Amino acid sequence: MKKMLFVFGFTFALLAANQLCALEVQPQQQLEQSQQLAGVQKIDLNRASSDELALIPGIGQQKAIAIQQHVAEHGPIRSEQELQEVRGIGPRLAATVAQYVRFED
């Protein structure tokens, strides 16, 4: 019985460790996608999907949706300064986002 409990506990520990490793890979993949996005071309902030916006460092799914809602309600965002009008985006985050996007002229 003790041996069976040991095997069960050991198996559970291995599965848990495997899941933790998998969780660490996902943010790394997102970072690589963000770096590719910045290196290749900037995305159009006003036309990007929420999934595309969520790849930008500091922008998760909720802020991506907030950006889209702001554009829908107020029109295109034309500058880093206007981006700060989106709820949850301050000067520092706007500066980071500006490295990955282009604003409508």
* Uncertain segments: 3-15, 20-25
Helical residues, percent: 55-70%
* Major sheet size, sense and barrel closure: 2 strands, parallel
Helix-strand topology string:
HEHHHHE
How big a fraction of the residues is strand? under 5%
User: What is the CATH topology descriptor?
Assistant: DNA polymerase, domain 1
Query: From the coordinates shown, what is the CATH architecture?
Result: Orthogonal Bundle
Radius of gyration in whole Å, from Cα?
Answer: 20 Å
Biggest sheet, spatial arrangement of strands: 1-2
Shape annotation: globular
How many angstroms separate the termini? 72 Å
The top level CATH class name: Mainly Alpha
Please give the number of β-strands: 2
Structural class: mainly alpha
Number of domains in the coordinates? 1
The average pLDDT score comes to: 77
Note down, in words, how this protein is organized.
Residues 51-70, 81-100 form the Helix-hairpin-helix DNA-binding motif class domain. This protein is globular. It has a single domain (2-102), classed as DNA polymerase, domain 1, CATH 1.10.150. The chain starts with a helix and ends with a strand. It has helices at residues 2-40, 50-54, 61-74, 80-83, 91-98, and strands at residues 43-44, 101-102. The protein has a two-stranded parallel ribbon with strand order 1-2. The longest helix has 39 residues, at 2-40. It contains five helices and two strands; from the N terminus they run αβααααβ. The protein has 105 residues and is mainly alpha-helical.
